[in-house]
What we know:
This protein is of the alpha+beta class and 116 residues long.
Amino acid sequence: xxxxxxxxxxxxxxxxxxxxxxxxxxxxxxxxxxxxxxxxxxxxxxxxxxxxxxxxxxxxxxxxxxxxxxxxxxxxxxxxxxxxxxxxxxxxxxxxxxxxxxxxxxxxxxxxxxxx
Length: 116
């Protein structure tokens, strides 16, 4: 069953990695979230999700993280390639399914003229 999962190598886990992307990355703004990415010299992309604590309840914040990870796992071609990606979720975030998040990211990528 692990063959379909998202390996830990595809996740940003250290605060230094998040800080590097926040300082030097390019920003795209979507409905209730921002996508910040920094091109790297890797054969794969990594994703990290940062959810505002103004969204009350750890259950809600963790659900949003799981939905974004699932969207990334299933649709990596929509996200920037060879990049570290940080999704910063704002308190006005309202999307609740991987399909809606995938559509929002797709719209963001086409509107933001991203270098894939």
